[in-house]
Each structure stands twice: as C-alpha cells, then as structure tokens.
Design brief:
- The structure is a homooctamer.
- By secondary structure, the first copy, chain A, is an alpha/beta fold.
- Chain A has one domain: 2,3-Dihydroxybiphenyl 1,2-Dioxygenase, domain 1 (Roll).
- Helix content of chain A is 18%, strand content 40%.
- The first copy, chain A, has two helices and eight strands.
- In chain A, the strands form two sheets. Chain A has a four-stranded mixed β-sheet, with helices on one face. A four-stranded mixed β-sheet of chain A has the order 5-8-7-6, with helices on one face.
- In chain A, a hairpin with a 5-residue loop joins strand 7 and strand 8.
- Chain A is globular.
Chain lengths: 135, 135, 135, 135, 135, 135, 135, 135
C-alpha cells in the first residue's frame, strides 16, 4: 500500500488551458487546485496532474500510440472503476480504447480502458482481479 | 488525501532494461515487481512505474528540458524527502537539478530536486512546507 | 478524503436551547458535547454544530427556502444513509423534503432528503452513487 | 474521530461567482470541484462548500456579526493552523478578526481567527490545546 | 470513532486465577498479556481486562443481577458478533442470557447476549443495526 | 491495536443522574449520548459508559478501595494524558489518587492517577513509556 | 491488529539465487527489493523475506516435514486467500499440501495450503473464518 | 506498507513449552494466544509465532550461527526499537549480539541486535534510518 499522505505528480504538455480544464474538471470530475497563466493543476483521483501550456511539445496525431507513454489510475475497488465507466458514458467522454480485458485467465488479468485528453495525452484506468498484481 | 489502496501508474520509454533496473532498483531503491522481455515494472514509492523498451521514443539529449514532461513524488514528511537526498548522495545518483527552494516566502514554497534516469526521463521530488499546497 | 482528526464546525442561531437539545440529541441521536447558558454544542455525525441562542437571528417561516442556506452530511456508505432514514421514521422526525433522487442518470446522481430543526435551520443528507461526485 | 470518507457540506449565498472563486480557490487554496451557472462547489479543507449565487440572501454589512452564523475548521495539528495563518499573510487575505486566544487557562483554551469571504460569510479557524475540547 | 491506539482497561475481582485463565484465554480466546501472583491481564477484544484475585470482593450468586454492573464489547461488524456466538457454541461457554433482540423496531435496535465468568462478572456483547446508536 | 470501530461498554451504578451528568459531561468533558429516566450514556474517551440509577448498588464509602474494581483509559500519546491532568486542575475535579509513577525503572513503568465519580466509581488513567506494556 | 508500518523479516537459506528469484518474484509475484551476490530480499506480502545463499544449510529432502519449521501469511480477507490459490493454479506453482480445511466446526476452523520453495523452505497460507483465531 | 489486518506466522521448534512461555511472554512481553499440549502460540509484536515442541529439531549449540536462519521485527518508529532495548536491559534478557550499527553511512544504515530464545532460535530486531530501506 502506498502512503495516502504523499502525492504522485505528473506534468504533461497541453495545447490550451481551457480545453484541459474542460476535459479534466468539467468532464472527468477532477478538482482544480490552481490555475496560472501557463498551467493548470488538478487533483487527479488524489494525485496531482499539471497541464503546462506547451503546444509544441504535445504528441502529434500521427505519432499517437498507446505505448510507451501513458499514465493513469489502477483502482483497488471495482465499484470505483465501474463508476468511472458510467461517468465516461453519461458525460460522453471520448474513449481512445474501450473497456477490455487483458491477460484473461492469467494471474495478471485486468480490466482496462484508455481515454485521451485534448492534447493527445493518453490515460489508462485499470482494475485487477487479484489486487497483488496491480504492480 | 489519496486512497492508499489505489495506485498511480506511469508508463515511460526506456533504452535498455538492465540500465533501467540498475537505476530504479539498485540505485533508487524501488522494488522490482515484474520483468518481461520488453519492460520492467517497479514499485516507485508506492506507485507503479513501467519502463517499456522503446529506445526510439525516448527523449533525445538535445530535446531534454525540465518542462513540460516529468513525474515524481511529493512527500508529506520532510524526513522522507531528506532520506532520499541522503540516498542520492551515498549512492552517487546523478542530479539533473540539485535541491533548491522554489517560491520562497510564498504559500507555495517548496523544496525540490530533479533526477534523470538513463533514458532521459526526468523525475522531480518535492516537499511543501504547507501540505495543502501539494496540489 | 478529509482528515478524520479535524472537525468542521458550524454555528447557527436557535430559538430555544431545550428544543435544540430535543431535536439534535434526543431526536437525531447526536451527542451533546457541552451546554452553556447561551448555547449547546453537539457532535453532529462527527463534526461540530453549535446552536447559539439568538431567536431574533433565526429564519422566519415566511423566508424559509431550501436555497441557499443549509448544511448536512454526505455519507460514503449507503447503509449509513439508510439508517438515518429509518431513524427519522421510527422517531417521527419532521421532513422538510422527503427522500428523492436528484440528477438521475447523470454522474452526479444522488439520494437526498432535508430535515428542519426547531429554529428553521435546514439540514440536508445525501448519498452519491459515484463517491467522487460528493464534492 | 469523524469518518474520513464522509463529507460535511455547507451551502451559503454569494454575490458573485468569480469573486467567490478568487477568494476560495485562488486565495484560500481550496480546490474547485465544479462550476455551474449559478454556483461553485469547492473542496474546503476536505469538506464541501457550495456558494450559490443569491446576492439578495447575503448578509448586509450593517447586519454582520460574529455570532450566531459562521463556519470553519478546527485543526487537530497546530502546524496546519499555523500554515493557514502564514497563507493569510503571504496572500494578504482579509481578517475579520485577527488570531487570538479564547478561554486562556481553561480546558477549552484555543487559538482562533476569522476570515470573511466577499459575500460576508464568516469563516472561523481554530486550534485547541486539548484535542478533546474540539467539540 | 475511538482512537485505535488507546486502550480501555477494566479491573475486576476474581476467585481463582486459573479459572479466570481458563475462561478468558482458553475459552473466550482472549490473549494473555501477563500473569503475576495476584492477577492476570488479558487482551480482551483489543482492550485490557485485569482479573485481580480478590475472592471476597466478587459478587455472590444471590446478588447477581444483569444491572447495573457489567461490561463488554459492541461490535461494528455483524460478522464479528456472529463469530463470537459460534465460538460460544463450539466451546460450550455458559450463557447468562442467550442472544436476543432489544428495542426491536426502534432506532436503538440491537442484538445482545450475556456471558458470565467464573467469578460472577457479567459480560455483554452487542451489535447495533444502526452503528450511530452504539453509544 | 484495537479496532477503532468497536466500542467497549461499561455499565456502573450511580446515585443520581444529574450528579453523574455534572461529573462526566460538564466536568470530565465526555459527550452525552443519551439520557433516559433511569440512566445516562456517555461517550467516555471513545468508549461507552452507562450510569444506571441504582443507588443501593453503589460502593459505600467504607468499602471504597482502589482494588479490585476500577476502569479507565490508557493513552498512547503522552500529550493526551497530560491534557487530562490539566483539565482536572483547571476544572478542580477531585483526585482519588494524585499522579504518580508505578514500577519506575521496570519495563512496565507508567504514569497513573485515579479520579472518583460522585457514586464512588473509581477511574484510572494511565500512560506507559513502552506502549507494548499497555496490556 | 499489527502495525502496518513495521515489517516482519525472515531469513532463510537457499541453494541458488536465480531459482529463488524465479520462485518468489516471477512465480509468487513478490517484489524484489534488493539483490546482492549472496542473497536476495523480497517484499513477501508486505513483510520481508531474505534468501541467503547457504546451500549446505537447506533442509534435505529426506528431512523435509511440515512441522515444526515453516512460515507464511494468514489473510484477513478471504478474497486475497482465493486470489493466491488462483495464482498457484495459473502459474502452476507446486503444492506441498493442497488446500484443505483444518479443525472444521471448531472456532479455530481455517483453510490452509502449503507451498515449497526450490530450497525446501515450506510456506503456509491460511484464512480463518473467525478472524480472532488468527493467532 | 503491509496490511495491518493480515498476520505473518512463523513456526519454530522448541525444547520446552514452559521455557518458551517464560522467554516470550514473561520475558519479551509477547501475549500468549493459545497453549496446547504440543505448542504455544504467541502474538509476537503483532504477528504470530508458534513454538512447536520438537526438541530434536532445534539447532544444536555447535551449529548455531547468525546466518542464514533468523527472524524478527523491523520497527518504523525508533522509540519502539529503543523501548525494546530498555526492556531487554530491565528484564535481563540475553543478547546473542548486542546493539550495533550495520552499513554506517550507506543508505541501508540500520541499528540491529539479536536475541536468542531458550531453543536456540535467533531473533533480530532492526531500525532503519531511511524507512524505505526496511526491505
């Protein structure tokens, strides 16, 4: 178990701060911690995500691939994973990859799906049947 | 506070798996969770870091910049931050940016330093005087 | 998650301390922390509610409205929400607004009901299907 | 101890949503959970504060008094109380009542101060020497 | 919620230390913390029970009554309450009062039963449907 | 560590409910959970104490002794123990036995004091230097 | 409950470090904390297991018995016990003793199975119906 | 962090159950969970230690070595480590190896000492300056 008082922080480039706000806060239901001229900081499922305005550093559509760069949350509780799928549906967020099962039958079996933010950052959310396999 | 049972996961490219292992496990003291042919997974301060072997996707030296892409941990407890600095010293890990204070005197005042892994992924570690400012 | 060791405190006017005691302690099952000549302090579902004797500051019946002034608890656990409804029934407390569902089908969907204390302070209790929407 | 998974919610009137945002998010460092046309919802030190746009329901300057209506947080940890005082200073937030000690020498001895939001809602923050007296 | 690091301690008279040991440790499954010549100390469901050898201070059979003197544990989790009933059955411990329901239909409804130790100390174990009513 | 969600409950006789209320709630700062005609229930440092009106069952002054019957709290945190001593002083509660050190130099070394309620029930409060010795 | 911040550590002999790594990390899904020339250290279900290279100190096949030397984990949550059985199946780890029920019908009833590592160290995993019987 | 609700269990041979009881319960302050004809079970710093009566399986004096077989606790809190040293002193328990510092100046620096039980089982207790190095 990780320490609930620490925070993981991830900094990514974004094209436009308002778009990032719309996606993360209005869409995904993250809380906005701060907004400066050149970035917004959100409480991303308890961790910190900083979207820096660096349009030139974002991934081009032509270079977009699931691997190797993405980030996200692995939920311990299946309900929280399902709640997020319901939110994606009710708020019509865009899937990059719809929910699927990976490694079925193996110990590492898990549910996963990918979202994509307006700046081509890929987000993966997972749930493992066997919680020890979360790593 | 984040949920201690969930895990943040971050996937990044790496050039060589043995080098990644040496840096994260032998150097930084992270635990190795799994090793496959094409990636290693480490328990990075309680969260999950996956190093995928994708040399062509790593950041070139000439393109290396602190912003906008980096990731790391913000510690709640100053001792844990200081312990890490001591480890960097005793194990002679390479700083990308030595410990410094940012926003001194402001509410957001915090201590920070950057490490760099062998594949040019930047890692930032922080400690905030006012723990509410961690986001 | 909030810090379980901190306490939210809310101070409201009341007409009569005995009535307030009857409503909060005998009725709603809150614990009495202190009683002074001019106020009572109750442990309101883990937070602090202070009823100050200020009859002239209470809301008149003619001015009573659900918005914008009310306070209450959002429960994480549906059982605790249902237990409270059962208590309202068995102790015949007065609803200001009976249990209903708000924003059905949306991510923000939640169950809610309002009680009213003897001094016209409105209390709302809620349960969200998706716990991330509690804010 | 209260349950860290529940949330206290408080709804108050406000004059202007942008002003409320500036005070709570930019000033006090609360996180913005949601913004609608008629209200903003903030994560207020772990609990929920909703500012509803109801200018006509706000307290007039001439009616402003410390009692009986105010709300706030009592901190268990003195550092968190002091951090907030430092933030008030560095961000030049307006005190309604500067830090003082109430009931000195008594078991109920505590430190307190009041802030005032742009819509005349009073906020009290406290720290008790004897944590059992927080109620 | 109580503080999990504190301990409630209860000291009671007993006739014979071996009998007390047999009842509490061998029978009820409490852990023995210490044994001195004149007393034994047991970890009684997480709290501390000290049986002092004072035969002359124990309650006589003729004076034995359920009220006002007894002590025990109220379980939050119904499974723990049921586990204890199963243990009483499988180890043939003696009921002073078999499991029953008190205040059925009221908010205070709870399950209860009484055991009696070899020195006539009465032990009550309870489970409340509404956990807020545990006090 | 005990389970913070369970509650230890202790039922004792008392002579007069108002006196019991004055001692436990007004004096010792416990919270009143309920009051019936024949008893009061208080949240005694997180556990439950029920004072049943049974004057004839209370201990006579002539029979009053420290052993074998008493109950109380052992604090993990020395500050909480000291806070209680300060409260006893500022509210002029009556000691049955002033603070002393027992088993000095031994592993079991602890600080202790006894209070006495208006019905001759003895209360002991303790703090152990070595927290493993709390049992 | 044990303290989640402490760690139990167990040191055992092993014949070959690579074999130990294969069994514990690749097979059983433990995390590798460190590897030196003469030992590996793994995070064994949250506790620490050190395999020292001491072939001459390992148990010979002819001396292998279930008692008295073995070690393992007793799970509080039946799901975690079942997850491990599933992993043993999907990864084809070798049972020393297949899952069975011990003391059926008694308070001590529990599920158990034994694994054996490549150096003849026996590992027992258990789940008790009544969690108080875990000791 | 390990799961506070699980238990590590270690089974070891012992020569004599009374001697084992004297060492672990009376000496080391562990709680006795159960005693059968052929073994005793103790709550060893929150984990479970079972001493099975198997004199012929105990380590002979001539074969006694610190490595590779020993077990113990690594404390997170230095006070708990120091408390144990104080207990060893006041109760005159026998050191196998007095407190010393290992790997001084390295990240793995830790304090350690060894005790030996009456059946030649070696117990190591440790404290790491950098808590991440506990594994």
């Amino acid at each position: 178990m990780r320490d609930s008082r620490n925070v993981f922080h991830l900094a990514v480039p974004c094209i436009d701060l308002d778009e990032a706000y719309d996606f993360y806060v209005t869409g995904l239901g993250c809380k906005l911690a701060r907004r400066y001229k050149d970035r917004i900081t959100v409480d991303f499922f308890g961790d910190q995500l900083v979207c820096h305005k660096y349009p030139e550093k974002t991934t081009k559509d032509s270079e977009l691939e699931m691997y190797p760069r993405h980030a996200g949350i692995t939920f311990y509780d299946k309900n929280h994973f399902d709640d997020l799928i319901a939110l994606v549906g009710s708020r019509k967020l865009k899937y990059y990859e719809k929910p699927f099962v990976r490694f079925e039958g193996a110990a590492e079996e898990h549910h996963s799906f990918f979202l994509i933010d307006p700046s081509n950052n890929l987000l993966e959310f997972k749930y493992y049947k066997d919680s020890r396999m979360m790593y």
